[in-house]
Write a structure and sequence with these properties.
By secondary structure, the protein is mainly alpha-helical. Helix 4 crosses helix 6 and helix 8 crosses helix 10. The longest helix has 35 residues. It has 2 domains: 90 residues; 128 residues, no CATH class. It has 11 helices and 2 strands; from the N terminus they run αααααααββαααα. The two termini are 39 Å apart.
C-alpha cells in the first residue's frame, strides 16, 4: 500500500504552529460572535467585530447592560484580548520562519491570497513534487467532488474526508476574497453562480485558485490572471 508523505520534523513543527493559530482565531471568533449576539438581544442592535475588539470596562458600563450580562461580556472581552495577544505572537514567529521562502511571495500574487493564507498553503503543501498533476493537487485540497457516476447518473460519493481540510479552508477563503476584489474572478464566479448556486460557484473558484497555485509552485512563476481565467 502506498504511504502518505511525512514532512521532516522542522517542517511539521512550523505547520502545526500555523494550525494552532487557526484554532485560536476560531476561538476568538466564537467569543466575538457571543458578544455581538448578547448586544443584539439586550440592546436591539448589533455591534461590529471591530467594535467588540475595542471594548473595555468603561465602554461596557456605558452600554447599560444588566449586571450579570455585563459580567459575561467582560469575560468574553478578556478572553478576546488574551487570544489577540497570543495570535500576534504566533503570527510573528510564522513570518520569521516562512518569509525567507520565495514561494510565499509568489503565492501572495494570487487574488485573494495574502500573507496568512500564503503561509498556510505553503506549510500544508510541503514539497510540490509529491503531486503528479494539478488535478491531484486540487483533489488533495478537497476542491474536487468525490462522486461515483453510472450512465450519467450519480450513484454515490467517495470518501469526502480524503485530502487536507486546512488547504480546503484556505482556498475557499481565497475564493471569497478573490470574487470581491478581482474582476476576472468575479466574472467567473457569477457565470458559475448563474448556472448552479453560490456554494458550487465558490468551490469552483477555489478549484481554479488551487490549480493556479500548483503551477506557481511547480514553475516558480507569479500568478497569471489571463492563464487562470481563460
Amino acid at each position: 500500500m502506498p504511504t502518505g508523505t511525512i514532512l521532516p520534523p522542522e517542517a511539521r513543527n512550523v505547520r502545526d504552529l500555523a494550525r494552532r493559530r487557526m484554532q485560536l482565531v476560531r476561538n476568538r471568533t466564537s467569543h466575538i460572535l457571543a458578544v455581538e449576539n448578547v448586544t443584539a438581544r439586550q440592546l436591539g442592535k448589533r455591534i461590529t467585530s471591530n467594535q467588540v475588539r475595542r471594548l473595555d470596562d468603561e465602554a461596557i458600563n456605558l452600554m447599560g447592560l444588566p449586571e450579570d450580562v455585563a459580567l459575561a461580556v467582560r469575560a468574553n472581552v478578556a478572553v478576546i484580548a488574551t487570544l489577540c495577544t497570543q495570535i500576534d505572537v504566533l503570527e510573528k514567529r510564522l513570518q520569521e520562519k516562512v518569509t525567507p521562502n520565495p514561494a510565499r511571495a509568489l503565492l501572495a500574487t494570487v487574488p485573494g491570497i495574502g500573507r496568512i493564507l500564503a503561509t498556510v498553503i505553503l506549510l500544508e503543501v510541503g514539497p510540490i513534487e509529491r503531486f503528479a498533476s494539478a488535478g491531484n493537487f486540487a483533489s488533495y485540497a478537497r476542491c474536487v467532488d468525490s462522486q461515483r457516476m453510472s450512465n450519467g447518473k450519480k450513484k454515490g460519493e467517495g470518501n469526502v474526508r480524503n485530502g487536507n481540510p486546512y488547504l480546503c479552508w484556505a482556498f475557499v477563503e481565497a475564493a471569497n476574497f478573490a470574487q470581491r476584489y478581482c474582476p476576472e474572478a468575479r466574472r467567473f464566479y457569477e457565470r458559475k453562480k448563474a448556472r448552479t448556486n453560490s456554494i458550487v460557484a465558490r468551490k469552483a473558484l477555489a478549484h481554479k485558485l488551487a490549480r493556479a497555485c500548483f503551477h506557481i509552485l511547480k514553475e516558480h512563476k507569479p500568478f497569471d490572471v489571463t492563464r487562470c481565467f481563460t
